Amino acid sequence: METTPIFLKPVFKERIWGGTLLQTRFNYEIPSDRTGECWGISAHPHGQSTVLNGPYANLSLGELWERHRELFGHHPADTFPLLTKILHAEADLSVQVHPDDRYAHANENGERGKSECWYLIDCEEGAEIIFGHTAQTKPELVGLIERGEWDQLLTRVPVKPGDFFYVPSGTIHALGAGTLVLETQQSSDTTYRVYDYDRTDDQGNKRKLHIDKAIDVTTIPHQPAPFAPLVDEQAGGTVTTYVRTEYFTVYKWDVRESLELIQSHPFLLISVIDGEGSLKTGSDTHALKRGDHLILPHGFGSFTLEGSITAIASHP
């Protein structure tokens, strides 16, 4: 039975809409002042986390998955199924939509679909996201897109720190400027851009749009996926269960003094988004701080979180 947490080194992605907040907030070493994404727990070929500690140090998460499936409860997925990111939107993200598993597998070389969810770590006053659209039929959606009537088509939603959004495949969406988000998603990098504000890159080129595929996969009319958070108040903290879907279950742990928890899943992903403290199991104590990403492997069992910590946890 493996009782050592697997700490991971993130991968960073430069984006046209990125900034520097991932450095100032989490003390990450970022590649530039346009860094938009921290792939904290990732085995996707486009960016893999690396093990930092223990006997598997320096292995990529993909290599660990291939060589030591016992650490993941011999989970049946062909590849590591989830991806945890922290996103900083200095500017608006492109308006986009993701395919489901069936469409992605058929049209994107066997890639997974992409359902995801967002926890708003922080945001500027007045920040918004785009979440959904107004079209009631496919011809109406096509017409609004062709005429560029984005203000009529897109639904804007004001956001505040602590908000949570479940974004299943088929949902038109975009993070707005001034948002900092932890995203839990299927391990997929397939995105269909619908609109990008006519932005150009440093060479004056507009980014590619994927209008036909986006129309193919968009849910019409928009149907907000229902979810009802379950809040478990304990003496030393709070456990909030946000969603249980076929792809992932996502929790927030607010540790005020201590929380006693159990890892009874094939594996458990943890990202510390605020505070510091420790994870104790048996005679072992592991320090935790804001910006840490780790996996508790299969059979980890009971553990205690101590200190003042906010973390997002998930499992398939």
From TrEMBL:
Its EC number is 5.3.1.8. It comes from the Bacteria. The keyword Hydrolase does not apply. Residues 239-316 form the Mannose-6-phosphate isomerase cupin domain. CDD domains: cupin_PMI_type_I_N_bac. Residues 7-107 form the Phosphomannose isomerase type I catalytic domain. Belongs to the mannose-6-phosphate isomerase type 1 family. This is Mannose-6-phosphate isomerase. It comes from Laceyella putida.
